[in-house]
Amino acid sequence: MSIDIRTTDDRQWNDIVSDSPAATPFHRAEALDVLETHANATLHRLAGFKGQEPVGLFPVYEVAKGPATAAVSPPPDLKLPYLGPSLLNTGKLKRRKRDRRHRRFIDAALEWVEREVSPNLWNVRTPVGYDDIRPFQWREYEVSPRYTYVIDLETTPEDLLGRFSSDLRKKVRREYDVSYEVTEEGPAAIDRIVERTRERHEEQGESFPLTAEFVRMLADRLPDGTVRPYVCRIDGEFAGGLIDVEGDERAGAWIANGKTDAPVPVNDLLEWRVCVDGIDRGLSTYDLMGANHERIYSYKAKFAPDLVQYFTVQKGSVGMNAATKLYKKLR
Fold first, then answer.
1. Helix H segments across 177-265?
2. Does residue 38 contact residue 80 with C-beta atoms inside 8 Å?
3. pLDDT tens for each residue of 83-119
4. Is CATH 3.40.605.10 correct for 4-146+310-330?
5. Which end of the chain is more exposed for a tag (fewer CB within 10 A), N or C?
6. Class of 154-283 per CATH?
7. Where in the chain is the domain with CATH 3.40.630.30?
8. CA angle 134, 138, 143 (to 5 degrees)
């Protein structure tokens, strides 16, 4: 039986997201709608069905600039590490049937977009856990591996601390001469965290297009507890923050920045607090959301994480060099 690509209402879509192991909070209907607004794009929520059984989801955004059109997932300039396709209802299938269903779903989704959108460029970043990229390769898409660090939270705080590097353990356990606290705060903290992160990027000569309005809208639309702002204060003054994005099983360090010249290790203490709270909430992993940049990989590696792959998938009808330039213009 072939795979049908259909549109669904918000409730059915979110039911599919809830049953799909690789889906992230950004796959939820509420988040996708916010992304559509802030990316100035057209959202296509593609759900694959075998009969009445959902088999996969693939949110795709149509972004146009002049005569050029791109199909992207996630949309550019919103600092989302992943989106892309996610599967479900494959656990009881034998390998041959699972692979065949997966390929038919991806084929059907790509063909739907080619027919309805006719993009000049495809750019997709798959979520962690979507580890079979062959259906794209078989259709001659260019696939590149990317990496993130993921901390195992199925342990106790003390055992996790024991896995950290020795210098990190000392920083977490040390008594400092100043008064500080790391707490989860409400949406009002989002503006300061985003602004501090923008300042840090500017200091490094980098752009930071994300707005506090966008993050606040996500926090407002998504279920309670999905977007969690953490703040470190020293003698009552803001010293840094981290915005944790959580699903049912995973936490993720989406936006984070602390003062590097503070009398306490702000970033380390923020990450540690999210780990401890994640363990208390019964989460399985904490995604540090990135291990690709040489400048910061060693900082993240001291948390004893696992190195996990995800993938960038690209295809351009005008050739990959020109397609890459096109994508940068769309950004």
1. 190-203, 212-221
2. no
3. 999 999 887 889 999 999 999 999 999 999 999 999 9
4. no
5. N
6. alpha beta
7. 4-146+310-330, 154-283
8. 60
